[in-house]
Amino acid sequence: xxxxxxxxxxxxxxxxxxxxxxxxxxxxxxxxxxxxxxxxxxxxxxxxxxxxxxxxxxxxxxxxxxxxxxxxxxxxxxxxxxxxxxxxxxxxxxxxxxxxxxxxxxxxxxxxxxxxxxxxxxxxxxxxxxxxxxxxxxxxxxxxxxxxxxxxxxxxxxxxxxxxxxxxxxxxxxxxxxxxxxxxxxxxxxxxxxxxxxxxxxxxxxxxxxxxxxxxxxxxxxxxxxxxxxxxxxxxxxxxxxxxxxxxxxxxxxxxxxxxxxxxxxxxxxxxxxxxxxxxxxxxxxxxxxxxxxxxxxxxxxxxxxxxxxxxxxxxxxxxxxxxxxxxxxxxxxxxxxxxxxxxxxxxxxxxxxxxxxxxxxxxxxxxxxxxxxxxxxxxxxxxxxxxxxxxxxxxxxxxxxxxxxxxx
DNA sequence: TATCCGTGGTC
DNA sequence: TGACCAAGGAT
Length: 409
Ligand code: SF4
What we know:
Blueprint: E1 23-25, E2 28-30, H1 43-48, H2 71-77, H3 85-98, H4 104-117, H5 121-126, H6 129-134, H7 143-158, H8 164-167, H9 175-184, H10 195-204, H11 211-225, H12 236-249, H13 268-271, E3 288-299, E4 302-307, E5 318-319, E6 322-323, H14 326-332, E7 338-347, E8 350-360, E9 369-371, H15 373-376, H16 383-406
Parallel strand pairs: 3-8
Antiparallel strand pairs: 1-2, 3-4, 3-6, 4-5, 4-9, 7-8
Helix pairs in contact: 3-4, 3-9, 9-12, 10-11, 10-12
Bound molecules: iron/sulfur cluster.
The structure holds a DNA duplex.
């Protein structure tokens, strides 16, 4: 995510990180998080002299308080990324998919490793799905990885889309991602709306509509800002990022910073002193709880795993056998199960209580995949299986310690 | 169109 | 501590 601000390194009305000090790791430019500080942008005084005070021709990127801080440095680095438009497209594509519903801090290490393992679209297309999923392990929403993989194969077949509209045909790319790639990597004046933009628009226009209605309004507003002749068109990628960054760092869901907000003079919600009323709160889903039983089934130092069937949570990943009950596990194996732990795992609006069992199998049955702990790292395991493994190792270590302490000399 | 799909951080 | 959230897409 070379074009994104490292977390905490810049805020819109505070000193802006220049983006210097970009490090290069195996071909991937990564933000350092500690660029040189430039003088604060006095957004309000700029606005006071602003040509958009009447608000008719649209806001500009500068008026959102945004300075494009990464591109110059990366250009200066002479990195191949910026000599190769296709590579630029790929890196923006990967990061936009990873960042869906996921924070920059979480994504960053995955992004780095991803570009090392799958440096180009072609190499991603040629990789196996298992390999792809293994590099997504822990990021969640695994369908994204599968679609990105499919998308890479689509692009090898059909070529790189050249417009946001064309991007929509690529698996896993919806209208947000299409707009992001087209504007950031291909300089097309394509609008985009994500959760940040939707929230900002809701407040700027004092729109209390909920869900789809607000989304539609936000898209119309975003489109209107990028019409021909509007200042945002000069650098649509910067504009879009500025808008999202405004939402992420100033016009936040809670603890918003209206006093430092560069667009406060045009904010209808602020004018009404009702910023807390926008956007309308979403109805929250009911939380459900359920139980699962998981077995760490071992034989001769190997672990038994099996693929998660399609159509379920974690489809396509591999996990320790998991059933709805202990009875389910007993139907699966003849080995004697002994419980050694329990933990909770939250999946969206479900809280799963997982009972952990261990058993030593008499024989490695063919319906399961038997792997060493080393080989286990080659498989994508869902978080509950990862937790189970961690607890098993901890349990075994304590047992070993206990045996050592209590064994007679 | 409402629901499903994960996870880790924050307050 | 639990509720809420994060740069969505597919069905
Ligand atoms: S003034 Fe406050 S509510 Fe309005 S856009 Fe700025 S941060 Fe958001």
